[in-house]
Amino acid sequence: MSNIIGIGMDSSVVPLRHGGLFLVQTTDFFYPLVDDPYMMGRIACANVLSDLYAMGVTECDNMLMLLAVSQKMSEKERDVTVPLMIRGFKDCAEENGSRVTGGQTVINPWLTIGGVATSVCQQYEMIMPDNAVVGDVLVMTKPLGTQVAVNAHQWLEQPERWNRIKLVVSEDDVEKAYTRAMDSMARSNRSSARLMHKYNAHGCTDVTGFGILGHAKNLARHQKNEVSFVIHNLPCIAKSAAIAKACGNLFGLLQGTSAETSGGLLIALPREQAAAYCKEIEKLEGRQAWIIGIVEKGNRTARIIDKPRIIEVPAKDKEGELW
């Protein structure tokens, strides 16, 4: 293992001066993107933890919260929303076996929330991201389309924007897509990370701000072997692909460049293990994971085929069920 993993991948990994131990650490923050402050806190926490989970590290020893309260908020707005965001963040941390022991709060023009996640672990607890081999398959553990769904929901109150998409989706479709996006973003990747150990993952990254193609390219660039990633399937939150097309691909969803928040893990797995991995995720969490591509011989790049298969998630609505 190299002495240090820094900016290139999901977490900073530093060997400690105490023999055999490593400090694995990550930080992230962003602006609110959903209306519910409690859920926003949960999403922010899940998003921070996800970078540890992408390294296969499933035990987070400590979390700090970073919070900027907007000076444009009234005292009443602040007193209602901020405690709910803090509670959402704290609840998510505790459900994931960690705790928030401190942080920093400032006044800022814009409201932001995020944090720091830290783990002290031994080498066997990590899965290095650089061991993909020809013949592996690529697995994705959450659907794409969170940015599209969140924006479409905001457009319900912006007639000029809504007019662009109302021919392909109903208001009910948009509300459902938004609720699914919020649920997906708040869902932890911890189980997915645990199963990476069981099924011998060869590398992983989480899909966030650069979209699935951006993160696939970054993961491919860091591989030891001369391999490339080819993506054939794009699982998307139901109706998000139709919305993206109606906008003239404003988001780049079908091109793989649409930003995701607290997205799923993109994992290189041995071909013979991948189906069992997906099946166990479904058994544990009641959610699907998908084989979306392959690892082939190449020069450490990634691409999406010309006409990828769009997988609607869920394939059809079930009465009274979100997924």
Structure description:
The chain is globular, with a radius of gyration of 19 Å. A hairpin with a 5-residue loop joins β1 and β2 (21-30). The mean pLDDT is 95. It has a 6-stranded mixed beta sheet. Strands 1-2-5-3-4 form a 5-stranded mixed beta sheet, with helices on one face. It has 9 helices and 11 strands. α1 (37-54) packs parallel to α2, α1 packs parallel to α6 (190-198) and α3 (146-155) crosses α8. It has helices spanning 37-54, 75-95, 146-155, 159-165, 171-186, 190-198, 211-221, 240-246, 271-285, and strands spanning 12-15, 21-30, 62-70, 100-108, 112-122, 137-140, 203-206, 227-237, 265-269, 290-297, 302-313. With 323 residues, the chain is an alpha+beta fold. The longest helix has 21 residues, at 75-95.
Strand order of the largest sheet: 7-9-6-10-8-11
- Proportion of residues in β-strands: 25-35%
Low-confidence stretches: none
**Main sheet makeup:** 6 strands, mixed
Element order: H for helix, E for strand = EEHEHEEEHHHHEHEHEHEE
| Outline type | globular
Question: How much helix, percentage-wise, in residues?
Answer: 25-40%
Mean pLDDT: 95
Report the strand count.
11
**What is the end-to-end distance?**
40 Å
- Assembly classification: single chain
- The chain-level structural class is alpha+beta
Please tell me how large the radius of gyration is: 19 Å
Secondary-structure blueprint of this entry?
Elements: E1 12-15, E2 21-30, H1 37-54, E3 62-70, H2 75-95, E4 100-108, E5 112-122, E6 137-140, H3 146-155, H4 159-165, H5 171-186, H6 190-198, E7 203-206, H7 211-221, E8 227-237, H8 240-246, E9 265-269, H9 271-285, E10 290-297, E11 302-313
Helix pairs in contact: 1-2, 1-5, 1-6, 3-5, 3-8, 6-9
